[in-house]
Each structure stands twice: as structure tokens, then as C-alpha cells.
């Protein structure tokens, strides 16, 4: 980042708590709604007798901000951070990248602002009325952190009314179970309602996963039936799913769990094929269960 020299600046901003001064350009400060209003008031109050306005009274600004926060604010104004860069493999469009790649691989990691820096930046952008494109950029960095810091991103988003970000983060809070978090960890969730939404999401997914698991037969309506081993294969399938049902958690891949039976059925190609078809159907049905708080039945949008 290019830092302007004293010769390139026309204002001084001072941190009152730390008594540290920063040389800045007025044109950078005017990217803030608060500073624009302040300059307008200063100019009106310092008009000369013949009506010509002067900046004499507005070349020195004192703010009740720590020096580090003030430095961050001035950097945001001087050089607003661009949105995180999408990772673009060869022969893949931006839409394909977003739809096909796992979330952790969608962004160039070096282009993402680390989460610990974002709450302070977002607070400053709101407090000083920074531009809408900058605010959207910071929120996109928040979303990009959802995979690595889902609970912290979720809690911060709910506390600040960023519902779209909270919905995205909830996708990555299916595992581990909520009860496994410490009291300190879970305290980042700001309200009972925000926590309850996650509880409902987990409960809804567990119920649906259990229902799908218990209803999916290995030879549905006799399809793919093995005349030699149908009873034994059905018994193995039923025993496995009965074992799994009480252990189902919101983030489980029950199709993968049931697919482990393939090795037991390797001696019969007909049974093996039926197991593969049944687990593929399980996988398809499970994909239709909501993974976010945005589509919970309590919100009137069950899927």
C-alpha cells in the first residue's frame, strides 16, 4: 500500500487516546459520509467576510479512536480492499467454480482478509459511513471466512443483522454437534433465537435423515432383486441402517455410511449393483434436505 508523504497530504488526523498523528489527504477522508458532513459544517463556519470559504479551521482533526483503529480506517479510505478473488481453474467459468468447487477451494486464500481483522473494519465502515461498494466487499470477505470460522462468522453476522452471511455460515455448522462446543465457544452467538435456529436446523436434518434411511430399501418394489441372496442381502441392509439411525447427526453422510456394505456384497454383482443404486438414491434424497437456517420449516420454506 502506498502511504502518502507529508508533502502529498493536506490534513492531520490525531488519535486522542494515543496522541498519535497521521498525515492524510482530504480527498481520501471525503470518501466517508461522516467526514464529508464534518467538512461541510467546518466550511460553513469558516467563511470569510467576502463569502469565500477557507480550510484553515479544518486542517486538523482529532478523533476519539485508538491509533490502531484510526490507522485501519485511514487505510480503508485510502485504498479500499477489493472483494476476495475467486479461484478459477482452467476451463471453468466463475459460475461453475461457485457451483462445483468445495467452499474451501472457491477463493484465492491470499486474497481473503483474515477474520480477526474484519469485525473492526466493519464496525469502522458503519460508524464512519463508508461507501456501499466497500461495505459489500467487506461482507464478501466475511462470507469467504465462513468455511474456516463458521461459528464466529455466524455469531458476528447475527449480531450485526447480516442475515445472508449468517445463512451461508450455518451451512458449515452441521458438524460437530452443537453440544460439543464449549460454553466459551458458543458464547459468540448473540441471542437465544440465533442459537435456537441452529438447534432447529440440526433437529430437522437428523429427523429427515433418519426418515430417509429407514424408508430406503435395497430392493425397492423388487427392483434389482437378487433371486439367490435377496433375503440375506436385505437382512444385512436392514441391520446396518437400524444400527445407524440412533447415531445420525446433522452433518452425517448416511449414503457413504451405507456404502460400506459394498465390500460385504462383493461376491455377488447383482447385490452389489442393488446396493450401489440404493445408496445413490439415498445420496440424492439427502441432498434435498436443507443445509441452512434460511429454509427451515419454522421460516415457512421447508425443503
Task: Give a verbal description of the structure.
By secondary structure, the protein is mostly helical. The chain has helices spanning 26-29, 33-45, 67-78, 94-100, 118-127, 132-144, 150-159, 163-170, 183-186, 192-215, 230-244, 254-259, 269-287; strands at 11-15, 20-24, 60-63. The radius of gyration is 28 Å and the shape is elongated. The relative contact order is 0.07.
Overall residue-averaged pLDDT value: 86
Note the total helix count.
Answer: 13
DSSP E strands, number: 3
Strand content: under 5%
Radius of gyration: 28 Å
The description of the largest β-sheet is: 3 strands, mixed
The SSE order reads EEHHEHHHHHHHHHHH
| Helix fraction by DSSP (H/I, runs of at least 4) | 40-55%
Net shape: elongated
- The parts where pLDDT drops under 50 for at least 5 residues are 48-57
Q: How far apart lie the N and C ends?
A: 47 Å
Give the strand line-up of the largest sheet: 2-1-3
Structural class by helix and strand composition? mainly alpha
Lay out the secondary structure.
Elements: E1 11-15, E2 20-24, H1 26-29, H2 33-45, E3 60-63, H3 67-78, H4 94-100, H5 118-127, H6 132-144, H7 150-159, H8 163-170, H9 183-186, H10 192-215, H11 230-244, H12 254-259, H13 269-287
Parallel strand pairs: 1-3
Antiparallel strand pairs: 1-2
What would you say about this model in short?
With 303 residues, the chain is mainly alpha-helical. Helix content is 48%, strand content 5%.
